[in-house]
Amino acid sequence: MKMTKTFAASAAALFAASAAFADCGIQGAGSVRILSNDFEALRIVNDVAMSCATDQVKVTANATAEHKNIQGPALTVNPAEYTVAVVANNSIVPLLNDGLIRPLDDLVAKYGASLQPNQLIKIDGKVMAIAFMGNGQHMFYRKDVLEKAGVAVPTSYEEVLTAAQAIKDAGLMEYPLAASNKPGWDLAAEFVNMYLGTGDEFFAPGSAELAIDNDNGRKVLETMRAMTVYMHPDYLTYDANELNKLWDANSVAIMTQWGSLAGAAIDPTKANPEVIAGTGFAAAPTIGGGSVPAAALWWDGFTIAANISDEDAEASFQAMVKGISPETVAANADVATWLVAGFEPGPTAVGVIGNASGGARAYPMQPYMGLLHTALSAELADFIAGKEDADQALADVKAAYDAAAKEAGFLK
Amino acid sequence: MPHRTFLVFIAPSILAMVLFITLPILSVIVQSLFVQHEAVLITVENCTPFGCEKETRVDHAAMQALREERPLGQFAGFANYLNRNHLAVDEIGAILSNNQGFGDTLSRIFNLPFYRALSFTLLYCFVVTPLAMALGFAVALAVNTLPRLMKGPVIFFSLLPMIITPLVGSLILSWMFNPSGILGASLQSLTGDPGLSLRASPIMTWIVLLVYGIWTNGPFSFVVFYAGLQTVPQDTMESARIDGANRWEVTRFVIIPHLAPLATFVALVQLMDNFRVFEPIVGFSAEANATSLSWLVFNDLVGQDAQLFGSAASTSVITIAGVLILLAPVLLRTWRDFNRKAA
Q1: Which residues does chain A have within 8 Å of residue B307's beta carbon, measured at their own beta carbons?
Q2: pLDDT of residue A27
Q3: What is the annotated signal peptide range for this record (chain A) (predicted)?
């Protein structure tokens, strides 16, 4: 089944590619070497870019989940191992910190006619990346289960809790909620999402001083723990991929899950038909009377390495612009929430677009945000497991973050 | 052998050991004494598809100049070792000087990441090593009594836990222990408790990890002890039997003393291995309830977006020191035996 889907997707990509092949027309010669994360939308972009290869232009792509760990060293060497690094809000930061990517203003002026203004990621006035898709965690819910329990689709985490109680009381599901609470990146992302929803800042303005030890921080932690009451006892071992399996097993009614996994949840060739029929998507719930969806907005985009020749940079930029062209997007509309001109959002894009139009905030790009994410990922485990209180958890996070930030030179 | 010939023979190994063991360890030790340069921060306007915001970022040019001047970063002495994410000297001091009794002290110390990891690492070492050796020895004794024809296949099956890659082995077991997996579901129906989950409570998680450790480490002891059993002098065995010793007495008074030096060797290797426990924690998704020193290094390096090389290096050096301390008694004994024999 999976084969068929991959086949169909690559066939679609090839179709888009061959349609585009005639006018791919990269000017000049050079070598294009792409490094990206490994999921379907990025594979399609890579495939289209690779179809631009000619006698003068060589194109190779490496799609790997380890991209974050190899991009730094690979772009530091001169000439860089890769000419293109596909990044997101968080993974662009180390590249910016070390000056490993080049400004793209000239290239945009020359070859970027098909790009929309909102695709340009500008840092200090200079275009440093070209975004092509949006992502984020949003609400998955079961229309049928909510209907049977007699509750409306929740729009806030407080309503999520009432709905969960109603579902449990009606005997429909034992554990109606799920979240990616596995200690590590996932658990920290849950906290970041909800804290963004409170409208508060993570750091004191203009400094690396942590500022989450406040009522909003405690409110977020209390909500996270209140939800665990309605979760399977194994909730500490679930990451995002595991959530989709629970969803497909018909055992969860409401969860916050990645937009990029929405397609798989209602894929008629793979998923459970009963679950597909009942599944609905919506923006992430608000928290604590906040007005914006409590979820971070993410963008995926490409950057061009600094340590490469200008010819390679020009060829790379043109190949990637072709990879994310409106034709590619038109042929693969249901794969991602594209930020490209002419994209018609399908049912799986509802959640991410709902987050964006509801005013959700982007995942912070501060250089020390990664350190906070690491501190959260290890120190929240005890709290979520019910072994310590919120004050202790926030104090632990601050202590762990301070130690790491001192080592990284952000705090004295 | 003349000293010259000996040196020529051993030179390539010494060179390889210096290149691949000594130098990397020295580099890790040096790394652990440094922290990164103080970041030069500037505030800039960032625009993304979701709007513009004033955000802080690192001034790359200024950092470049600092790094060229001193590529290792700022010298910090033992700051990496003593901070809260490692030995936490200040925090321990505060806890010891102001606490509400022994239980409170203990729970606050184990709330610190390093001590939490150390406690599980040591428990794993001291539970898994002897039990895995006992299991290996028992299997070796059993296999040794089998008829020749059956020995081959039985040895192969007994070695399977060691042949399987630890990460893969722990993943497979973790799925079997999942409430919808074969072991998890069977346990639920046997105990009649539909909420029973081996991955939910810390104690259960620890037991599963320890059992996994014994299962995966048993075969190594088995192989070594089985080889050792082939060298037990048959005439001693025979005379013991003629003297009326039963099977247990033969084992206790002939076989075990004969295998004792081997047991030292196995214990050394296993202690070293178990002190570096890592794969089962990842495989069983047990990070919430059990961490180890190696897991701390992993978390510093590849967990997230920012890498902490100094922190990872100091945890590694502490791990090496820990292995040395663990092995010290055994090494000392071997050294004394060696001297006694030489004398």
Answers
A1: 72
A2: 82
A3: 1-22
Task: With CB atoms and an 8 Å threshold, state whether B111 touches A388.
Answer: yes
CATH number at residue B236: 1.10.3720.10
Q: Note whether B83 contacts A362, CB cutoff 8 Å.
A: no
Cβ pair A223, A154 in contact under 8 A: no
Picking from B111, B178, B287, the nearest residue to A184 by CB comes out as: B287
DSSP summary character for residue A100: -
Domain annotation covers residue B137:
yes
Does B203 reach chain A within 8 Å, measured CB to CB? no
Short-list A65, A330, A94, A361, CA closest to A201: A361
Q: Specify whether the CB–CB gap between A211 and A201 falls below 8 A.
A: yes
Question: For B96-151, how does the pLDDT look when each residue is reduced to its tens digit (9 = 90+)?
Answer: 988 888 888 888 888 898 999 999 999 999 999 999 999 999 999 999 988 888 98
Amino acid at A152: A
Domains in chain B, number: 1
**Model ipTM over 0.85:** no
CA distance A386 to chain B (A): 11
Query: Could you tell me the residue ranges of all domains in chain A?
Result: 2-134+298-355, 136-296+358-407
For residue B308, the chain A residues in CB contact (below 8 A) are: 371, 374, 404, 407-408
Which chain A residues in 361-390 lie under 8 Å from chain B, judged by CB atoms?
Answer: 361-362, 364-371, 373-374, 377-379, 381-382, 384-385, 388
| Domain extent for B213 | 118-342
Is it true that domain A136-296+358-407 has CATH number 3.40.190.10?
yes
For residue B241, is it within any domain? yes
C-beta atoms of A373 and B304 within 8 A: yes
Alpha helices, DSSP H, located in A198-291: 215-228, 240-248, 262-265, 273-278
Cβ-proximal residues to B202 (8 Å cutoff; 6+ apart), any chain? A385, B289, B290
| Record: contact B287-A183, CB cut-off 8 A | yes
Entry pTM: 0.82
How are beta strands A279-282 and A177-178 bridged, if at all?
Answer: unpaired
And the tokens for B87?
């030995």
Judge: B45–A125 Cβ closer than 8 Å, yes or no.
yes
Q: Nearest CA of chain A to the CA of B165: how many Å? A: 20
The superfamily in CATH containing domain A2-134+298-355 is Periplasmic binding protein-like II (3.40.190.10)
Collect all residues of chain A within an 8 Å Cβ-Cβ radius of residue B80: 407
A319 touches chain B (CB under 8 A): no
Residue B59 within any structural domain of the chain = no
pLDDT attached to residue A363: 92
Q: Find, in chain B, the residue whose alpha carbon is nearest to that of A399.
A: B84
User: Which pLDDT score, from 0 to 100, does residue B148 have?
Assistant: 87
Mean pLDDT in residue range A255-269: 89
Any idea what the Cα angle at residue A86 is, between residues A84 and A91, rounded to 5°?
A: 120
Residue B78 lies in a domain: no
